[in-house]
Amino acid sequence: MTTPVRASRVWLALAIVYVVWGSTYLAIRWGVETIPPFTMASARYLVAGGLLLAWVKWRGAPRIALRDLPPAFLTGGLMLLCGNGGVVWAEQRVPSGVAALLIGVEPLFIVLLAATLPQERRRPSGRALVGIAFGVAGVLILVGPAGGLSGARVDGAGAAAILFASFAWALGSLLSRHLVLPASPLQATALQMLAGGVLLGCASGVAGEWSRFSPSLVSAKSAAAVAYLVVFGSLVAFTAYVWLLRAASPALASTYAFVNPVVAVFLGWLLANEEVGARTLVAAAVIVGAVVLITLGESSRRST
Questions:
Q1: CB contact at 8 A, 111 and 298
Q2: Which of 1, 76, 155, 193 is the most exposed, having the fewest neighbouring CB atoms within 10 Å of its CB?
Q3: For residues 126 and 116, what is the distance between their CA atoms, to the nearest angstrom?
Q4: pLDDT for 89-119, tens place per residue?
Q5: What pLDDT digit, counting tens, does each position of 195-220 carry?
Q6: According to the 3-state scheme, what is the secondary structure of the chain?
Q7: How far does Cα 21 stand from its chain's mean position?
């Protein structure tokens, strides 16, 4: 039986994950105002990964072995270079709330990939299939013709980049279940962040960001946004989520997937004057409903 103290901690951890991860999309938008996208993302994960690795080593984590590096670079490449890198690049072209809505279809890719990857081969439930259909409809509402709904059409290249980022994150998440990872989960995460930071730094160089970036051009708002992403987005909220996975049911912990987009849309409207027209509201309702159906459908099947 859950004690009142335990329950209060669970809800506090949920609130942190809901608000902080929902707010990272706005922080990313502010960060890329004066910092090139891949440079910003690289700095975020190198600093966060370095701090996390130092902490786990101080806590007595085992020695890093050479075999720990390939999984870190594989998952860091998929989830951080392609996943987060796609989002930060796209937020130069689309509002932060729209980015959160599009990235919110990740459970759709999880279900589809789980049904096709040889390591998984998990057929989706009927409820999840309905959720997939709703998710596709929500994306089409955002990026397709207005159909009588008010609100600007979403930039096609930005939307495509975010959908690719969502797919890459889902693929990295599933593959990580079948990799041999370090005994310490936090050390594995720190190595993944550092690997992703290195890869994002390489992408920054290939994209020509090094030649046009100057620290003197970074605004106080962008610097504060990166600091927020490092401390709260990558360390505080992640720690709260890892604790939630042990202290609460997976179904409850996974509710962040359909709360974060709502938080992101609200904060973008409140703090960045992002337009929230009928198109965005209808798409938000459809996409969030799709994620609810997929999440609950898969959770109920696992519990049977």
A1: yes
A2: 1
A3: 16
A4: 999 999 999 999 999 888 888 888 888 887 7
A5: 999 999 999 999 999 988 999 999 99
A6: CCCHHHHHHHHHHHHHHHHHHHHHHHHHHHHCCCCCHHHHHHHHHHHHHHHHHHHHHHCCCCCCCHHHHHHHHHHHHHHHHHHHHHHHHHCCCCCHHHHHHHHCCHHHHHHHHHHHCCCCCCCCCHHHHHHHHHHHHHHHHHHCCCCCCCCCCCCHHHHHHHHHHHHHHHHHHHHHCCCCCCCCHHHHHHHHHHHHHHHHHHHHHHCCHHHHCCHHHCCHHHHHHHHHHHHHHHHHHHHHHHHHHHHCCHHHHCCHHHHHHHHHHHHHHHHHCCCCCHHHHHHHHHHHHHHHHHHHHHHHHHHC
A7: 8
Spatial CA neighbour of 29 closest among 20, 18, 37: 37
Q: For tokens 């990799």, name the residue.
A: 179
Q: In whole angstroms, give the CA distance from residue 244 to residue 257.
A: 14
First-to-final CA distance of the chain: 21
Can you tell me the distance from the alpha carbon of 295 to that of 251, in angstroms, rounded to the nearest whole number? 7
Measured CA to CA in angstroms, residue 173 lies from 9, 34, 195, 197 at distances of 26, 31, 15, 17
User: Looking up tokens 């080593």, which residue turns up?
Assistant: 57
What's the one-letter identity of residue 187? Answer: Q
At a CB cut-off of 8 Å and minimum separation 6, what does 143 contact?
Answer: 153, 154, 156, 159
Instruction: Measure the CA angle with vertex 229, ends 152 and 58; round to 5°.
Output: 160
CA atoms within 13 Å, Cβ hemisphere of 217: 10
* Higher-pLDDT residue of 148, 294: 294
pLDDT at position 1 is 46
Distances, alpha carbon 36 to alpha carbons 24, 200, 203, in Å: 17, 11, 11
